[in-house]
Amino acid sequence: MALHPARPFRTALMAGLIWLCIGPAQADVYDDVQRLIKREEWPKAEALASQHLKSRDQDPQMRLLLSRIQEGQGQNDAAMSTLLGLTQTFPELAEPHNNLAALYAQAGRYEDALASLHRAILARPDYATALENLGDLHAALAKQAYDRAAKAAPTSPRPQSKAQAIGHMLQADSR
Prior knowledge:
Layout: H1 12-38, H2 42-55, H3 60-72, H4 76-89, H5 94-106, H6 110-123, H7 128-152, H8 157-173
């Protein structure tokens, strides 16, 4: 099971506000970092993000990008720490909660993942990615329970067939 992290984006209004506040050269730093992330040029992306954060350490969008860079470099603990700090500074933002949930789920911390997804949905009730992730997480937990039930009652076909059905659904989702 893989939960889907949010991909940061700037709306036209946000881009306009950034341009007005910091000028066109600085507004491009987000695009540059995202481009480097897309090309998986992690050290360059991290250097650019870190440079930006030296003067704007509370910038939520760049901190979210930094967490993606950290994750891309296999630094999941650092990414979790970055996202946890972001959720504490900006609890009203749904994306950091969702991305933290994805990392928690990867680490097998399902209760933490559920709590983070609930906070994401509380922050933004119509957040489709978090809602889908919540469904995926519940499905994965249900499959685990059915697998345990099948082991506890190996002659009962019901838990096995339910576990298989959910397993097929989860496999189809990962393609």
